[in-house]
């Protein structure tokens, strides 16, 4: 009996910083069934080194287009008989498309956020021109949320007929226990501090200064920010300048769930998202969410059910929603329960993996 040949997939990322794109790439690669063989191409990094070895990995430059990398990927793809190239994010998309001009494999491109808000007019014009030119090379385009797909169409990005929405997913976690009693002694008549947590890279997209501005308006609530990035020093200086005492910059942590389990509310102030994994992780333990009403967040949160969406830049609205959840225990429990259920129904790792497997099989349905 002839054994069925495994489908070989080369997954490409232009960076391995801790973030949604790389996390989803390795989550997907590690959970595909035995019908697939996964290879990776990304810059050298210790962040995800446990997934990589000399046989399944080839390094490329970080966030730059290097002709040597294109040549290396062509050789690597031919040597390993790659069937599908799967590019994660904009930088990887450029590299994968240029490579595929020469090897003509099946190419799947996952957007992981359409980054135009943080760039000037000229850069955005170049990006849209490039996307509408080389984007036609893609066999399939994947959007990680419905609002991301809608946004692409509003920008007149070429999407073609072969595109699909596959929501990001995360591992289902154990439901967190609500703190038993937020009230201190009757004599003191005080409320012990609620904790609001945010997990994000320190980059412009995450709009971290708004977390500090919000916190300044609610000194009776603690705010923890987990993460690191190129704006770390700038955010530290801003925190000192604003004289905010209730914001704690925790730094990069491997076990973010330790902080999610001890928090009461999750806050996202992002300018835009694809579909934020950190928010999904907060939902997976049963945290209510307060988030900016932007692409990605609007798909994740059911306003008034699993949390609240506030208008971007309307910080008073965000403050109002945080207070509403913080000082009403029953509201926290209700929204936390709904958040927990919604993650399992729409944003679970297993459902995401199943949809990708179906797509990979579809694009190589004539695979021998």
What is the helix content?
A: 25-40%
Element-by-element helix/strand order: EHEEHEHEHEHEEHEHEHEHEHEHHH
Query: What CATH architecture of the largest domain would you give?
Result: 3-Layer(aba) Sandwich
User: Helical segment tally?
Assistant: 13
Share of residues in strands? 15-25%
What is the general shape?
globular
Determine the CATH topology of the largest domain: Rossmann fold
Radius of gyration: 22 Å
- Estimated structural class: alpha/beta
CATH homologous superfamily heading of the largest domain = Glycogen Phosphorylase B
Summarize the biggest pleated sheet.
7 strands, parallel
Spatial order of the strands forming the largest sheet: 3-2-1-4-5-6-7
The stretches of 5 or more residues where confidence is low (pLDDT under 50) are 179-191
Q: How many domains, as an integer? A: 2
Mean model confidence by pLDDT: 91
Q: What is the number of E strands?
A: 13
Mind telling me the CATH class of the largest domain? Alpha Beta
End-to-end separation in angstroms reads 14 Å
């Amino acid at each position: 009996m002839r054994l069925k040949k495994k489908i070989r997939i080369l997954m490409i990322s232009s960076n391995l910083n801790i973030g949604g794109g790389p996390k989803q790439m390795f989550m997907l690669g590690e959970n595909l069934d035995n019908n697939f063989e996964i290879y990776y191409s990304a810059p050298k990094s210790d962040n995800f080194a446990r997934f990589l070895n000399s046989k399944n990995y080839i390094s490329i430059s970080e966030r730059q287009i290097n002709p040597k990398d294109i040549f290396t990927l062509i050789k690597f793809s031919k040597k390993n008989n790659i069937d599908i190239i799967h590019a994660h994010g904009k930088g990887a998309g450029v590299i994968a498309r240029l490579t595929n001009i020469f090897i003509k494999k099946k190419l799947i491109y996952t957007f992981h956020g359409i980054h135009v808000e943080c760039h000037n007019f000229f850069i955005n014009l170049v990006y849209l021109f490039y996307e509408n030119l080389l984007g036609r090379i893609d066999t399939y385009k994947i959007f990680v949320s419905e609002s991301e797909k809608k946004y692409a169409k509003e920008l007149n990005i070429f999407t073609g007929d072969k595109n699909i929405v596959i929501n990001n997913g995360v591992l289902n976690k154990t439901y967190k226990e609500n703190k038993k009693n937020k009230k201190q002694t009757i004599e003191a008549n005080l409320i012990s501090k609620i904790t609001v947590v945010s997990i994000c890279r320190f980059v412009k997209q995450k709009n971290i200064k708004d977390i500090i501005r919000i916190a300044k308006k609610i000194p009776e609530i603690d705010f923890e920010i987990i993460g690191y990035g190129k704006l770390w020093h700038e955010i530290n200086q801003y925190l000192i300048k604003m004289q905010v005492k209730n914001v704690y910059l925790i730094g990069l942590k491997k076990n973010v769930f330790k902080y999610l389990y001890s928090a009461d509310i999750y806050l996202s102030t992002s300018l835009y998202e694809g579909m934020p994994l950190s928010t999904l992780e907060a939902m997976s333990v049963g945290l209510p969410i307060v988030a900016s009403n932007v692409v990605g967040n609007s798909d994740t949160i059911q306003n008034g059910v699993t949390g609240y969406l506030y208008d971007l830049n309307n910080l008073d609205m965000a403050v109002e929603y945080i207070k509403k959840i913080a000082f009403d225990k029953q509201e926290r429990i209700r929204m936390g329960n709904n958040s927990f259920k919604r993650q399992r129904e729409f944003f679970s790792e297993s459902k995401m993996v199943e949809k990708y497997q179906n797509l990979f099989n579809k694009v190589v349905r004539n695979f021998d």
